[in-house]
Amino acid sequence: MSSGLLSACLFLLLDASGSVDAAEHRLQREATAAALTSPEFLARVEYEGGIAVAVAEFSMGVTTLADWTTIRSPVEAAVLAEMLLTAPRKEDHSTATGEAVLFAVEQMKRAPGCERQVIDVSSDGRVNSGMLLEDAINVARAHGVMVNAIVIEDEPDVLEYYRNAVNGFALPATWDTYAQSLKMKMTLEIANAPRVLEPEFPRVARYDVFGWMGEPVWGFVGIPDAALVAVHPDYYARQRSSEVPGPGGFGTLAAGIVILLGAAWRRK
User: Fold this and answer.
1) Which candidate, 8, 7, 6, 13, places its Cα nearest to that of 103?
2) Cα separation of 74 and 80, whole Å?
3) pLDDT digits over 12-39, tens only?
4) Does residue 51 lie in a domain region?
């Protein structure tokens, strides 16, 4: 990592629109707090040299839950998690995801110095108010900001909608698998590991994750509608030349991938 720069600035956008009921809203908050304080995530944060995180919820407007917070230790992560668990909810029935992405892009101008800027959208529905998501993504792309999504599939074809819109990747989840999927996704994001490529055959995917760690390579072929995730070409070489954390925590992430793929299979 470049001297003086954090590994990543991660802006989390959580859906607080009317389609998200009170229990689901609580689950999003609690799962995000748990992911930020999990040993696997913090091991990756420490290895990468620190990150900055900001969190907001969106419906028609955007409500900031936590401003930019630098995380290098469990103490800083715990403070951020507590802010998420105690902030009041503000909602209406609209889903202005495009406006939320624009807000996050603007907030990136105030972020600490980071090697990468990533917006992470969590939602269960399409935009029904404000700027189109595709147009907001174009603005983010122009500013060098990657936009990824974790999609709770409560609407038909909503996962495909996000995959077509974002300039990063969109992973499927259910409310039952959301917590594990989110932890895996955030850990991969700060490690700069995943990159989604448009599959030539969208119903056939192969996942080769963390093979460089000496762990078994998890390969799954023929999973219907699974995302095609590839690793940056220089990632293996870069990591093989560096000392990395022990594999125990990342084995949990591999298990998370299995859960995630199981959810994608069950929805068929």
Assistant:
1) 13
2) 10
3) 999 998 888 888 889 999 999 999 999 9
4) yes
Rounded to whole angstroms, the Cα distance separating 55 from 53 reads: 7
Nearest to 133 by CA among 185, 171, 168: 168
User: In degrees to the nearest 10, what's the CA dihedral of 100, 14, 23, 40?
Assistant: 180
Instruction: Identify whether the C-beta of residue 92 lies closer than 8 Å to the C-beta of residue 59.
Output: yes
- The amino acid at residue 128 is N
Give the pLDDT score at 91: 64
Kindly report the pTM of this predicted structure: 0.73
Pair of tokens at residue 164? 């077509």
Residue 14 three-state SS: strand
CATH number at residue 32: 3.40.50.410
Residue 228 structure tokens: 């095609």
Distance CA 210, CA 240 (A): 11
Structural domain span for residue 162: 6-194
- 242-251 CB contacts, 8 Å cutoff, 24+ apart: 244/47, 244/213, 245/43, 245/44, 245/46, 245/47, 247/210, 247/213, 247/214, 247/215, 249/39, 249/40, 249/43, 249/44, 250/40, 250/210, 250/213, 250/215, 251/215
Which CA distances in Å does 33 have to 28, 99, 106, 228, 256? 9, 24, 24, 28, 17
User: What's the CA gap between 236 and 213, in Å, rounded?
Assistant: 9
C-alpha–C-alpha distance, residues 257 and 237, integer Å:
23
Query: 218 lies in a domain?
Result: no
Place of tokens 């974002």: 166
Quote the number of domains for the chain: 1
> Is residue 156 domain-resident?
yes
Is 66 inside any structural domain? yes
